[in-house]
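User: My collaborator sent over this chain with a note saying "see what the structure looks like." That's all I know about it. Can you take a look?
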Amino acid sequence: VYVPPWVLARLAVDEGDRVRFETVVLPKGTAATFALLGRVPPFFDAGALRPQLLAALAHYPCLSVGDTVELPSSAPDRTVLEVTAVAAAGSSAPTSVSIVDVDLAVTIVAA
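Assistant: Without extra context I'll predict from the sequence alone. Here is the result:
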């Protein structure tokens, strides 16, 4: 099975290590909170980042607390957001949620 290098790094395993995979069903996400990492601009406007974040999330099937999402930018300073909380209906405190075919409420805060 081919696993991309970024997945290996996220799982803290090296190429050639034995890994056991398990299939799980994640609850459907209802909300996610993201914290801006790095330098916060003096006039931070979360609303301006929202369309970029939603476009970036189209490439993610799930979110877990601690995940980072880098927003596309031509500027030398990249905007990186960290998932700080997720929520799902009927689940008390999930750490991971599916975001496929859901209406996800997104909140962006300055870290």
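A starting point for your reply to your collaborator: Residues 91 and 101 are 18 Å apart (CA to CA).
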